[in-house]
Amino acid sequence: MKLETGIRRIGVFVVLSTLAAAAASPPRDKSDKSKPSGTVMIDAGSFGIFVRGQRVATETFSVQQQNAISVIKSQFKEANATDSASQKSSLEMTSSGELIRYDWSQASGGSISVFPDNEFLKERITTSPSKPAAEQAFLLPTATPVLDNNFFIHREVLAWKYLAIAPCKDEKDHRRCEPADFGTLVPQDRTSMSVRMELIGKEKVTIRGAERELLRLNLHGESFDWALWVDESDHFKLIRVAIPADNTEVVRD
């Protein structure tokens, strides 16, 4: 599934060692052997995707730090579709934001891998086990953010990076940050695009009938305008996304 303009067209972890390091879970019980030693869960949960108020899909995600490697995994499922339509992705980066590998696949078949090729990036596309994979090179640095279709957790990661690197200053009770431009890669569309993120400030937002004070950021591209709200009291986790042009809202479950 590709939702319209917002999700379709917009679609590093420098921040995990700075801004979001405080999101680390409490010390792991020694009896808990479910995670490898040295693994820290930064964020985990799900986003509900709503179009005109109706839930159309769910994204389930996790963000982990394994020693010096950040691993972002996500699965996207349509509400009324078979499992064959589900998509999943795995994004691995160094603590300095350099891409190690990105993998996307759909249950019905087809996969994409993105990996460093010398100083730039290369994408490998497989449409069928019986057909040879195609490759496409991008003259993009290995620290280029990935913003693939349907995966909102990638937008959270970009917000963290922006808040970690943007020049900011405090004015009374308000923090002002300069906008920042990012060149990004959209693997499913086999293209790159430029986006701009800007901190707007604190806003009161109603989430499931309860009013919350969240930090708003605007994400702008050539053909889209999104609003993102993160919770600065909870490690800047992404809580809500609004895509007015598509009558689409994304809310953390």
Give a short summary of the structure.
By secondary structure, the chain is mainly β. It is 9% helix and 53% strand.
Structure commentary:
- The chain is mostly beta strands and 253 residues long.
- It has one domain.
- It has 3 helices and 16 strands.
- A 14-stranded antiparallel β-sheet has the order 8-7-6-5-4-3-2-1-16-15-14-13-12-11. A two-stranded antiparallel ribbon has the order 9-10.
- The protein starts with a helix and ends with a strand.
Specify the biggest β-sheet: 14 strands, antiparallel
Helix content: under 10%
Helix-and-strand structural type: mainly beta
First-last Cα distance? 20 Å
Gyration radius (Cα, Å) is: 18 Å
Total beta-strand segments: 16
Average pLDDT taken over every residue:
87
Q: Any idea how many domains?
A: 1
SS summary, helix count: 3
Which tags fit this structure?
single chain; 253 residues; mainly beta; two-stranded antiparallel sheet; 3 helices; 16 strands; 9% helix; globular; disordered N terminus
